[in-house]
Amino acid sequence: MTSLMKTIIITLLMFAGTLTVSSKELPFEIRQKYSRTITKNQLESAVLLRDIIPGYAHGWITDYIAVEILTNSKGKISKATGKNEKLTADQKSILLAAEAASHIVIKVHYKDKNSVTSRLETREMNVSLMVIPEKAAEFVGGSAKMTSYLKANVIDNIDALTDEYMLQGIVSFTVNENGKVRNVILTKSTGSDKIDRLLIDTILKMPAWSPASNSKGIKMSQEFEFSVGNQGC
Questions:
Q1: pTM (predicted TM-score)
Q2: What is the dihedral of CA 220, 223, 226, 232, to 10 degrees?
Q3: Residues 27, 32, 36: CA angle, nearest 5 degrees
Q4: How far apart, in whole angstroms, are the C-alpha atoms of residue 124 and residue 67?
């Protein structure tokens, strides 16, 4: 067992390119920025809403009013409406036109019986997704090297900066088509200016990544988040 493995507990969540590490009771993680994602390949093969939305509750939604799909691709907003779970030709068309980093919003309008009055009431379910590349960006050297970098530059330095209670801090950033880290933004403060600056500087100075790419091998940018600390109550 290496010295690194002796000093930290590493848990790798291999779904969606997420790396979670717990060190000195202080977890830190790099993950894709958006919790709900979909690739172009998945959009191309989609026929029903359940093909796009994992766990879609198709079994109990029987009385549809309308299904609206909106896409925002490079600032261009498109909209198409269907009658039920089956995607229409227009809905398929705008989904196929959505490139990586496009936002997709699905609004399902339906009627459901009120459990108290037994009357049918109009309801709405909203789902947001981000289109991501087929191949995610990767830190050069792999997850172990990234863990070592983050531990040495963040975790090992936090105790020296403050003895106060630290909130969870989050920094968002983009790995561009050349594997360079760009657009580094503090999206949630730790409550300590010094630690916030440490998080930002660590990501800004992060070594190069292997950039993301689509199914054709074209290099693309991808957005990530770096979080440190427990979420608290």
A1: 0.71
A2: -150
A3: 115
A4: 10
